[in-house]
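Worked example 2:
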Amino acid sequence: MPINVHYCGKIVEYFPPKNKIERQDIYTDKKRSYVYTSKQEIKITDSIFFALENPINHLFFITLTYQWKPHINYGLAFRKKANTDLNRFLKFCRDKKNIRRYVGVLETTKKNVPHYHIILDCDLTITGYKRVNANKKNYDNGLWFPPLKSYTKYTHKKTSKNYQQRQAYFFQSLQTHWNTITKNFYRNSLDYQPITKKDLRQKNGAYKIAKYLTKYFTKELKKPKETRRDFGVRNYFISEKLRVKPVQIKNKDPLYSDFILIEQNAQKKNNLYWNICSKNKNFTENIHYIENTALYWVDPYALPSCDTAITRITHNKPLKTLHDRIKYIQNEGV
């Protein structure tokens, strides 16, 4: 059975069930559910960890909130409207601020009001934009060509040398646009906190921050599955620049044997064994996948002992994570 290795250090292994699962017991409901799952948690953690490990500009953790009003029904219709508002806000960030890397989740307050937690990778020097038509010059000269696709040119205006002031101006413009979309007048409808380079320079700083933010982002996962909320709308969003696919290791892969040692170390550390972690006696709680699965975390920076292929081939390479090392080996060939 294949092994999926995620960027954040989560290993997903598939084991054949000990007892045969009948076809009628397999979950076949095709209705889309907007309840937080462990799969979503892995995707969110992968994206956050990748953004922290590979920052391009300045990283910020922002919260978008709505002004609570007693006469408004904050039900499914409002959550759909909120997601539309968020799409407009993200379009503004992409078009006007050149923000291409973001990951966020939807949550609701005790009063059922939706709000969003988002990590943005922001270039504070981008202050405006201008669309330029490629045919305008030829048209003015009396010539005409079939219209070409216009392109966006970002303008770098003179900005303050003071970083704090540039930061304040940048997020003031974002908050003004968010208030315009939502028709709020709150001055704190957009709250932002920087993720500093000092935090990331600490030992395994990116991984520690990613784990903390994942818990903060996915509070709903702490609840039992039966009581988790079905939001009825998309409950998380990841930009294309931050989508990280897991590396799959098949049975015939030369690295497959390395993960026996990795699994043993993870079992000793977390006291987790597949033969006792199942809640059902028949080992069939994951019947949605037909096969059984084993999930466990490993340190994404850790390596197995020196006699494994992963360490022998990549011990002197400037690769950060286990995911990167496996990808390097698969691309180079063994």
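DSSP finds ten helices and eleven strands in the chain. Residues 76-97 form the longest helix (22 residues).
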